[in-house]
Amino acid sequence: MGKRIFYFLLTNILVVLTISIIFSILPVRGYLTNNGTTINFTTLLIFSAVIGFTGSFISLAMSRWMAKKMMGVQIIDPSGLLNDYEKAIVEKVHRLSRAAGLTHMPEVGIYNSPEVNAFATGPSKKRSLVAVSTGLLQEMDDDAVEGVIAHEVAHIANGDMVTMTLLQGIVNTFVVFLSRIVAFVASRFVKEELAPIVHFIAVFVFQIVFSILGSIVVYAYSRHREYHADRGGADLAGKDKMRHALESLKAYTNRIKSGEETSIATLKINNKRKASLFSTHPDLDERIRRLA
């Protein structure tokens, strides 16, 4: 999952902040009662859920478009005039997608980057995208490329982006809920005429802070789903090809000197460092061990 996770989270934070600003400007803060001196927690929870799930589903709807724009993905038209490696990539994606039971073939794209990487994204199984980097095609042999693509197709077949969206909606709900409670408490410690301003500013400060903390949950889910996608890739392409793909990734990362690559460790199929709370992918050694 990788960079798509990063852009999904970034888009989600921006969307939720935008919705929150709109709701704050409009007179719809019905969760404050008794002239703003008390909170109706039930109303606040409903208010938070509306903002939280709206933000996550808007982020999901934008995920494929965002990935294309941010990564510069060039979509391959299967009906067009293709060169040999474009034909090979499209054939692999479509063959593995049919094996995974997908009735609508994902869009297939290539983006120009030296990093060895690939990703799958999209709002649904019917509107998905599988993209590979030029670096992946140059560095890996045919079997390893097939293993990587099988892993990404497995993410689509597993519905990981939709499940992540629901999880993000829950996280967003608690982010909005808690940030407003803390902001309300903070506004009680200033003069009455300053309370609305302090409340307004505190809401967005704490919403960003809680969003970053909440992303730890999303990253943990991402790492968990990587193991499932590895097993799914093994089912689709064969265990030997999936293991070969992971071992090829490990061999490649071992050749890279620390700091040589500057790409963000997100929409990525591999992590160069040991997994941390903010890693989207588990350690490669652990993935190979579990697959074995």
UniProtKB/TrEMBL annotation:
<feature type="transmembrane region" description="Helical">
    <location>
        <begin position="38"/>
        <end position="61"/>
    </location>
</feature>
<keyword id="KW-0378">Hydrolase</keyword>
<keyword id="KW-0482">Metalloprotease</keyword>
<keyword id="KW-0472">Membrane</keyword>
<protein>
    <submittedName>
        <fullName>Protease HtpX</fullName>
    </submittedName>
</protein>
<keyword id="KW-0862">Zinc</keyword>
<keyword id="KW-1133">Transmembrane helix</keyword>
<comment type="similarity">
    <text>Belongs to the peptidase M48 family.</text>
</comment>
<feature type="transmembrane region" description="Helical">
    <location>
        <begin position="196"/>
        <end position="221"/>
    </location>
</feature>
<dbReference type="GO" id="GO:0046872">
    <property type="term" value="F:metal ion binding"/>
</dbReference>
<keyword id="KW-1003">Cell membrane</keyword>
<keyword id="KW-0479">Metal-binding</keyword>
<dbReference type="GO" id="GO:0005886">
    <property type="term" value="C:plasma membrane"/>
</dbReference>
<feature type="domain" description="Peptidase M48">
    <location>
        <begin position="88"/>
        <end position="291"/>
    </location>
</feature>
<dbReference type="InterPro" id="IPR050083">
    <property type="entry name" value="HtpX_protease"/>
</dbReference>
<keyword id="KW-0645">Protease</keyword>
<dbReference type="GO" id="GO:0004222">
    <property type="term" value="F:metalloendopeptidase activity"/>
</dbReference>
<dbReference type="InterPro" id="IPR001915">
    <property type="entry name" value="Peptidase_M48"/>
</dbReference>
<dbReference type="GO" id="GO:0006508">
    <property type="term" value="P:proteolysis"/>
</dbReference>
<feature type="transmembrane region" description="Helical">
    <location>
        <begin position="7"/>
        <end position="26"/>
    </location>
</feature>
<keyword id="KW-0812">Transmembrane</keyword>
<feature type="transmembrane region" description="Helical">
    <location>
        <begin position="170"/>
        <end position="190"/>
    </location>
</feature>
<dbReference type="Pfam" id="PF01435">
    <property type="entry name" value="Peptidase_M48"/>
</dbReference>
